[in-house]
Every structure is written in structure tokens, then in C-alpha cells.
Design goal:
The complex is a heterodimer of chains A (256) and B (103).
Chain A lengths: L5 E5 L7 H14 L5 E6 L6 H4 L9 H5 L10 E3 L4 E3 L13 H5 L8 E6 L5 H9 L2 E6 L3 H17 L3 E9 L8 H8 L3 E6 L2 H8 L4 H4 L4 H13 L19 E3 L2
Helix pairs in contact in A: 1-10
Chain B lengths: L8 E2 L5 E2 L2 H10 L2 H7 L6 H8 L4 H8 L4 H19 L2 H13 L1
Antiparallel strand pairs in B: 1-2
Helix pairs in contact in B: 1-5, 3-4
The chains are: A alpha/beta (256), B mainly alpha (103).
The complex binds adenosine-5'-triphosphate (ATP) and magnesium ion (MG).
Magnesium ion binds next to α1 of chain A.
């Protein structure tokens, strides 16, 4: 197979940081690595990716693509931070989720990387995200309940047949009582690709609807996301000695 | 920690106690004259034994402050529970999780 392009970001647990990860990897790949990147909100029931990047109430959504109301190209928004996004519809309707793969497929010609945000529930939405992806990234955090959900997610991912690229261990406080990445990788038999610190700055960035990699580029969380973004495309991220703060919060423009 | 037979607790009613669990079970059924023989205004044999032989200072202190077998049972029970919880270390929790999900 060619290099994997479509990454499904999954977890069988809400609030672990899937959407945060998608938004930040999207911004990092576009800004830091100059990649053509598309982020897709396939968390159909509770689609909040737009709210992480300042796209509050979009007219064109993945929901409409899925119900064949619009072509996939019409629902792509170009973000001023450089990535493109297909948002979801905040008050969603029932859909045939299996179409996701066929809708995404032609976009592989256009983009270097496509990141799919997904539902935290064990349902058709999650299955659709896994099915549409070339590789799966499982988001976890260093506690027993999340580990349990992660083991379950890994099992489901393996059953789906889509390879697992690795685990992203998020919200790490670096405390002795926490699980460490070795605990998680040994229990799951899956490599931990990145350890992302827990930082209140992530919430502060969210309140401004800007990914932290742009909101606070020199923050440890931002470096971790940029390093992970690089590793996904096989590029080594060189951490600058002095971080340069970008003031640009990013505004939304439509693509067409 | 193993203790020798000289260190066992020989109760008035003939019971022989080798450890904290034995003491716990003993206290549940002990008759009051045996209990009073060991715990009275002059002494508290259980507290002394826990301190001197079992080397559990904190528990010994608690036991020394009561002359009520029910309370003693609770205090001893608490320490046993704490130990059981400690036994559930990270590795065993993770193993349980892995087994419960992967069958
Ligand atoms: N590294 C971090 N440090 C601090 N807060 C974080 C971090 N990562 C995520 N958060 C916060 O945790 C909350 C949940 O994150 P996010 O929405 O990304 O999770 P999710 O997995 O997408 O949740 P859902 O399953 O509900 O879609 C958000 O408020 C986010 O800002
Ligand atoms: Mg989310």
C-alpha cells in the first residue's frame, strides 16, 4: 500500500482528546510541515470539531454529503491556519454511515493527509470512521478506566481490519500514580506514539476556538503534537530553541 | 513474617493464635470471662501481643485504647482490608483489565 493518508482518530471514551488531537494535528501538519491536510468531523452525533477551530454553525456539512445533498467538495472549508475542514451538523439526523469511506476516497487524490474525528461510542459511527481510514490512532489517558476503554478500542480496531498506527497518551500529569506509556503499550500490545501533557492552556485555546499549536506554539503540548504530526508523515520535528508566538488566531473562509 | 511457637498467643480458653486473622476470628466468638482475663484495668494482652510480636505499632495503640471486642474486630478488619487493597497493585489491575477484555 502507498503511504497511509487517512488516519482515524478514535477512542471508546468521551473527552479523552480525540477532537483536540484532530484539530492540532491538522494545524501542525499545515503550518509546521506545509502539508495539504483535511480534517473531517465524523463524530456524527456530537460533532464539535468546528467548535475547536472557530467554525460554529456551518451551512455545508458532512451530514449533507452523506445524504447526497451536496458533493463532498462543496462542504470543504478552508481555514486560515492552512488546513481544510469538513464540519458536522450540530443538530444531526440519522444517516447511512457506511458511505463515509466512498465519500472520503476521492479526496485522497487531493490531500497529503486526511484526519477523521470520530464518535466515542461503540456504534456504526465509530465503525464507519475505522472503515474509512488507512490507519487508526487510538487516544487514551493514563488511568484505569481509560485503559480499559483503550483495550476495548484496540480490540475493535483489530477486528475492523484497519491497521493501528499507535496510541496517543493524552492528558498526562507526569505523576507517579498515573499509568506510564510502558504500562499502556504492554497491556495493549500497541506502540505509544506520543505522550501529550495535560495543560490548562488547552482549555484556554479552546475558549478561543484555536488549536493550541497555533494559540501557544511554544507550549509543551504544542511541541508534542508537532512531533507526532511529523512522525505520521515520516518527518523529524525539530523543536526550535526559542518558540515564536503567532498572534494569528485564524479565521474561517469558505473554499468556493 | 513467621513467628515461633513461643510467640503464639495462648488464650485462657485454650485457643492458640498465630496471626492477626486468628485473633480476628477468636474475638468474634470469645466468651466474656476469657476476654476479661486478657483485657482489664491492669493490662491488654492483645495490644501487647500485636505490638511486641506482630510489630504493628499503630494497630496496637488502637487496640490498647479499647476494652470492647467489637471495636477490636473493626480495627483489625480495617488493617486487613487495607492490606488486601494494597495487594491489588498496578500490574494485577492491568492484567485483570487485559483478561476481561481479551478473554
Ligand atoms: N492535553 C490536554 N490538556 C488539558 N485539557 C485537554 C487536553 N486534551 C484535551 N483537553 C480538554 O479535554 C476536553 C475534551 O477534549 P476533546 O473534546 O478533544 O475530547 P473528545 O475525545 O473529542 O471528546 P468527545 O468524545 O466528547 O468527542 C476539552 O475540554 C479539551 O480542551
Ligand atoms: Mg470529540
Amino acid at each position: 500500500m502507498d503511504n497511509p493518508k487517512v488516519f482515524g482518530i478514535v477512542a471508546l471514551k468521551g473527552g479523552v482528546g480525540k477532537t483536540t488531537t484532530v484539530a492540532n494535528l491538522g494545524a501542525a501538519l499545515a503550518q509546521e510541515f506545509n502539508k495539504k491536510v483535511l480534517i473531517v468531523d465524523a463524530n456524527f452525533s456530537t460533532p464539535h470539531l468546528g467548535l475547536h477551530v472557530g467554525l460554529v454553525n456551518p451551512n455545508y456539512t458532512l451530514h449533507q454529503i452523506m445524504s447526497d445533498k451536496h458533493s463532498v467538495y462543496e462542504s470543504i472549508y478552508q481555514h486560515s491556519l492552512g488546513f481544510h475542514i469538513i464540519p458536522g451538523q450540530l443538530a444531526p439526523v440519522g444517516l447511512d454511515y457506511n458511505k463515509l469511506k466512498e465519500k472520503i476516497e476521492p479526496l485522497k487524490e487531493i490531500y497529503d493527509v486526511i484526519l477523521i474525528d470520530s464518535s466515542p461510542s461503540l456504534n456504526h459511527e465509530m465503525a464507519a470512521a475505522m472503515g474509512a481510514s488507512d490507519e487508526i490512532l487510538v487516544v487514551s489517558s493514563p488511568d484505569y478506566p481509560t485503559l480499559s476503554s483503550t483495550l476495548h478500542a484496540v480490540k475493535i480496531a483489530k477486528e475492523s481490519g484497519t491497521p493501528i498506527r499507535g496510541i496517543i497518551l493524552n492528558k498526562v500529569h507526569k505523576k507517579r500514580f498515573e499509568l506510564c506509556s510502558k504500562d499502556v503499550s504492554e497491556a495493549s500490545n500497541v506502540k505509544v506514539l506520543a505522550v501529550i501533557p495535560d495543560d490548562i492552556k488547552v482549555l484556554s485555546a479552546l475558549s478561543k476556538m484555536v488549536p493550541i499549536v497555533s494559540f501557544s506554539p511554544s507550549n509543551e503540548v504544542s511541541h508534542s503534537y508537532k512531533k507526532l504530526a511529523g512522525s505520521l508523515i515520516g518527518v523529524n520535528y525539530k523543536r526550535p530553541i526559542f518558540g515564536i508566538k503567532r498572534k494569528n488566531g485564524g479565521e474561517i473562509e469558505t473554499y468556493d | 513474617m513467621a513467628i515461633t511457637s513461643e510467640q503464639y498467643f495462648y488464650a485462657l480458653n485454650g485457643a492458640v493464635l498465630k496471626n492477626k486473622n486468628d485473633l480476628l476470628e477468636f474475638l468474634k466468638t470469645v466468651d466474656s470471662s476469657t476476654f476479661k482475663h486478657h483485657v482489664n484495668l491492669e493490662k491488654n494482652d492483645f495490644a501487647n501481643w500485636i505490638d511486641g510480636v506482630l510489630k504493628e505499632k499503630r494497630l496496637a495503640k488502637k487496640i490498647s485504647q479499647t476494652n470492647n471486642p467489637e471495636e477490636m474486630i473493626n480495627y483489625i478488619g480495617e488493617t486487613i482490608k487495607q492490606k488486601d487493597q494494597k495487594k491489588m497493585d498496578k500490574k494485577s489491575v492491568i492484567t485483570l483489565l487485559v483478561n476481561s477484555i481479551n478473554g
